[in-house]
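Dear U.,

Please find below the material for section 3 of the report. The protein was modelled together with adenosine-5'-triphosphate; I have listed the sequence and SMILES used, followed by the predicted complex structure.
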Amino acid sequence: MELRRLNLEDIQRLPHKSIEVVSTFEENNVNIPGNFVDASFLNAGGRNPEAIHDLKRATIETVANAIKHGNQFDINKKVNVFTTSSNGLFYVAIQDQGLGFDLDSCRDSAVEKYIPCSIGIHTDILCEGKGIKLITDIMDDVYNFCDNVAYFSKRIK
Ligand SMILES: Nc1ncnc2c1ncn2[C@@H]1O[C@H](COP(=O)(O)OP(=O)(O)OP(=O)(O)O)[C@@H](O)[C@H]1O
Ligand SMILES: [Mg+2]
């Protein structure tokens, strides 16, 4: 079943929470939005510890992308994280100040390098491009609207 895809305006019209972080990986800056999202999920009634762990993981990966690819490490640029819940789904939107991107066309950009190991079996090593792949595996939906906001949603159980 297709899940409803809220955009940032939809989220901001609903009761929501938000946090702003600067574009640096220093001083646990990337962990702050992860913890913020965990607390918001709990607040919205999400009690599943595995889901909380996954949400934190997805948030950290997406904020890292926002800092790296979106804001290009410009410390004057901000990343904003928004959360809301609606119809049994918990939503996270992560906005940077970059030019925007098309998440669907980046989905398959993962570079898989196969290197032969000593016993002759090929081992696959994922290099760049693991982030969106991972997030897609652990969230119920991952999407964007070809701008500078990335979204994911998870069922509240
Ligand atoms: N916020 C963003 N702004 C612009 N481009 C983005 C953004 N987030 C992701 N992308 C694009 O999507 C691609 C895939 O992202 P993904 O997280 O899967 O891999 P990565 O960040 O390149 O590498 P890794 O996460 O494995 O270190 C990126 O290389 C980038 O081109
Ligand atoms: Mg990444």
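For the text of the report, you could mention the following: Residues 8-155 form a domain with the Heat Shock Protein 90 fold (CATH 3.30.565.10).

Regards,
Y.
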